[in-house]
Amino acid sequence: MPQPTSPGRPPVFPGRPPASPDTPVPTVTADPLAAVGLSPRGRANDDGGTGTGHGRGDGSARVREKGPYRRLFALPGARAFTVWNLVARLPMGMLSVSAVMMIATTRGSYALAGAVVATGLVVTAVAAPWTARLVDRYGQARVALPAAAFAVLGLLALLLCVRHGAPDWTLFAAYAATATTPNTGGMSRARWAHLLKDRADAAEGLHTANSFEQAADELCYMLGPVLAAFLCTALFPEAGTLVGAVLLLTGVTLFTAQRCTEPPAGRPAPGGRAPFRTPGMRPLLVVCLATGAVFGAMEVVTIAFADARGHRSAAGAVLALQAAGSFAAGLAYGAVRAAGSARSRLPWCLAAMTALMVLPLLAASLTGSLVLLAGALLLAGMATAPTMVTAMTLVQRLTPEGRLNEGMTLAVTGLLGGIACGSAAGGWTVEHASAAAGYGVPVAAAATALLTALALFGPPGSRRPGAAGPVESVGSADPAG
């Protein structure tokens, strides 16, 4: 526990000359992230700044305020749970690609592989909110670890069924068992919310934390497919699934072992609403659904466009550029102080995403160049991370206390549903029109998300009572949303 400093002279240590009365003495504060002034000519202000004292002098020490990410990871236990959560989250970008490559290589059918993965996605969308509700009620360690172990058993069963030529229906059953995979990203965000709760800088810290988490998502979905493809082609078809299972179980085990940062478990407040029934949540889930459609359509259409140009193998690298743009934008977004409330920022973010999604459509339609398309996707990706960060912040504001994992998982379920719908719509447009025309689907999906947000919250800067009320009712650190 921090101890107050003595008001007397600094102590004299053996072998060291005694300090003069003007020697600055570091001050220990109860807040490890506070910037404390050390100037002998000035005194630390209450807000952590350094006073000017009697004027400037060559001997005055100046302390630069820590950046937002340094302040964030200076929180006790933050680095440990973040590292292991990233290990557990990396398989999220590996498992579907690994399953497709494993099944298609051994069974010779991409249709079967796609159907198995799609079935798992549907079951996950149904089961994930229930798993998250159990996590909120009984704690991350008691629920997430058994759920991850059961999912790993499903992956191993899938691997063995494929390896030994089991009937096709066993592949569907085995992969459906992976629906119990815990929402590791949601659990990490819940820990940040717990660590930052009741702090004076909670709103700013949560903005930085959500930005980092979105950047981490992009990084995992950027590296995961590349790692999966490498393992399945360089080693053996089942290697990607096997490594993904090991990483998932190891990451979740060590993540849940960090008990000092785990949010307390508990029953929901008596009479409290479920997150899905909270005012404002369902329209926000429509925004997540439409945003997911942007991602799903973009992936399918880009693969088709590259294939039509005779460069199918380059599709992964082109899509990785979009993820890279989102990753960089996410980190940059978290490094700056957000202006206004999340409620007022969301329409602006969606408007920017809608405008930037026009760039791939123009590049594909007017030039037909895969290189120019890659550059357009890099720029378009820079709008997705700020949009997702702001949307997730609003989900946290709307979710009742004690049910944060469930609320976050509902948002992820909306995204997964949107990805499925966007993939189907993008594929249909490519088949019945052209690959270039398929880039109109992400534009339409982004515009749908924007119109939904405007209907929910009104134009940016407006203070409609029906729009602001639900967000403000949750008692967050950000009073405006």
Automatic annotation (TrEMBL):
InterPro entries: MFS, MFS_trans_sf. Residues 1-63 are annotated as: Disordered. It holds the Pfam family MFS_1. The keyword Repressor does not apply. It comes from the Bacteria. The keyword Cell membrane does not apply. This is Major Facilitator Superfamily protein. Residues 1-24 have a biased composition (Pro residues). The chain crosses the membrane at residues 80-104, 110-131, 143-166, 226-249, 283-305, 317-336, 348-366, 372-395, 407-430, 436-457. One of its GO terms (molecular function) is transmembrane transporter activity. Keywords: Membrane, Transmembrane, Transmembrane helix. Residues 25-36 have a biased composition (Low complexity).
